[in-house]
Amino acid sequence: MTSIVPDNVSVSAQNTYKVAKGAFTGEISPAMLLDNGIPWVILGHSERRNVFSETDELIAEKVAHALETGLKVNIKINYILLNIYIYIYI
Questions:
Q1: Residues 27 and 17: beta-carbon distance below 8 Å
Q2: pLDDT tens per residue, range 47-76
Q3: What are the sequence ranges of the domains in the chain?
Q4: Which of 86, 68, 82 is nearest to 17 (CA)?
Q5: Which of 5, 24, 43, 74 is the most buried (most CB within 10 A)?
């Protein structure tokens, strides 16, 4: 995979699972990504939170396992679901 990508571009996966081995159909382990030359993973997508009910705790477990195996991690912070108000007093 990386042989066709320029040196100044990195390839990333959009998800990975929190454990190295097991029967988790449809999931991919960090080791599988690294074996295929993919150094990055993006975790915490709002779609995975909403559709698959992924919690902060699960995402934290995924992040920890990915980092332990040597992947670089891009964490998406889901602020869409938060009620954030900015008050400006003039």
A1: yes
A2: 888 889 989 899 999 999 999 999 999 887
A3: 2-75
A4: 68
A5: 43
